[in-house]
């Protein structure tokens, strides 16, 4: 069983976030467009994922183009790969474990890939090992991120 809230931290995910097509409710569209947003894990290039989408779609009538952050569209994506995760040594992990143990005895500290974005791309590019620590406790059934009524409970 795949858990959607966990999928983005275990492997690359791609989702159609916008769909456009047609001109009338009672007519088949002659053309359709989908914007597909991918959350790419480190080690994979943008072009590698674009090629995988082409392979999965397996239809010569479908064109997969890359849309840059500035809106430019091209037939090929950059080949750059994400930065590898920084080493997690005791000097970094121990103070966090001590703090967590004082607040939530018995809770384990484990590294994971956050599904959202951060400024880590810039600090990693500068050669600085970059870590993020979430200070928010969210119930696993709370699925409001980026959706209707998005908020974080006061108790967190």
What order do the SSEs take from the amino end to the carboxyl end, as H and E? HEEHEEHH
As an assembly, this protein is: single chain
How much of the polypeptide forms β-strand, as a percent range?
5-15%
Q: What's the story with the biggest beta sheet?
A: 2 strands, antiparallel
**What fraction, in percent, of the residue positions are helical?**
25-40%
Count the domains. 2
Structural class: alpha+beta
Q: What distance separates the N and C termini? A: 28 Å
Low-confidence stretches: none
What is the overall shape? globular
Mean pLDDT: 84
Computed over alpha carbons, the radius of gyration is 20 Å
> What is the topology, as strand order, of the major beta sheet?
1-2
* Helix count, DSSP H or I runs of 4 or more residues: 4
How many β-strand runs? 4
